[in-house]
Design goal:
Structural class: alpha+beta
CATH topology of the largest domain: Helix Hairpins
Low-confidence stretches: none
Number of strands: 10
Mean pLDDT: 85
Strand order of the largest sheet: 4-3-2-1-5
Number of helices: 7
Shape: elongated
Largest sheet: 5 strands, antiparallel
Radius of gyration: 35 Å
Number of domains: 3
Length: 268
């Protein structure tokens, strides 16, 4: 009986004890490593969303290693288990190919920061304010208050225009007058309108110049610089003011016209 205990029972007790020790100590080590990883990422000023996701992935991966080591201590053949996990991971990866693409793009967006929450951007054919940057998609709010959810892969693989990235923007406007109108007077009016608007920056200086002798009009380009937050207000207000001043000063704004001539044929 003693020989049976020494040969079979005692070794099993030792293996179980060692396996439990590996599991519990390993789980504690995993917890400490995960906390350390979180501290390092936060110290590097990585976004909280990415910190939580990376720490979760690291925690699961390390726990799997601890479990495999514990089973190996018990004498369980873990080779087939590792192969099974690898095959399952491959199958999941293939089935979630688009999701993994969006995840990778989300990580790149968080790391390189082509835009931040609150920025007004144009990406993947949508223009709006960025409300949330998530791991798999980005939520944007359009000007008419629609919520648009865009996969991160579509954003990162295309052109991103960030209108909030710079403090100032140039407002590009074109105004046409008739060929019979006073060119110098029109230019003087445009300069007065620009100078009277306090939202328009003095540096860089605004540009008012004749840009084109078009088919039915002489076109001016008007290009003032403003703070980014004032862009749309200045654009709309200037357009309205130009129309009102031109009307007051008798300067015409040509528009496309078509003359139709009817010829009546006399019947023999």
């Amino acid at each position: 009986m003693d020989n049976f205990f020494d040969a079979y029972v005692f070794p099993w007790i030792v293996d179980i004890a060692l396996a439990l020790a590996i599991f519990f100590i390993g789980r504690w080590v995993v917890k400490q490593v995960t906390k350390l990883l979180e501290r390092v990422l936060r110290k590097a000023k990585v976004e909280d969303m990415l910190v939580n996701f990376v720490s979760s992935i690291a925690n699961v991966a390390l726990l799997l290693i601890v479990i495999v080591a514990s089973l190996n201590q018990l004498g369980v053949d873990t080779t087939s288990l590792i192969a099974l996990l690898g095959a399952a991971g491959l199958a999941i990866g293939l089935s979630l190919q688009d999701s993994l693409k969006n995840f990778a793009a989300g990580v790149m967006l968080v790391i390189f920061k082509p835009f931040r929450e609150g920025d007004f951007v144009e990406a993947a054919g949508v223009a709006g304010v960025v409300e949330h940057i998530q791991i798999f998609n980005t939520i944007m709010r359009t000007g008419d208050n629609r919520e648009v959810i865009i996969p991160n892969g579509a954003i990162y693989s295309g052109v991103i225009t960030n209108y909030s990235a710079r403090d100032t923007r140039r407002v590009d406007m074109v105004f046409g007058i008739g060929y019979d109108d006073d060119l110098r007077k029109a230019k003087e009016i445009l300069n007065e309108i620009i100078a009277a608007d306090e939202r328009i920056l003095k540096d860089p200086a605004a540009v008012v110049a004749v840009s084109e002798l078009a088919d039915s009009s002489v076109n001016f380009v008007v290009r003032p610089w403003v703070n980014s937050a004032d862009y749309w207000a200045v654009l709309w207000d200037t357009t309205e003011t130009v129309k009102l001043r031109f009307d007051e000063e008798g300067i015409s704004i040509p528009f496309p016209q078509m003359d139709v001539h009817l010829h009546k044929e006399e019947q023999a």
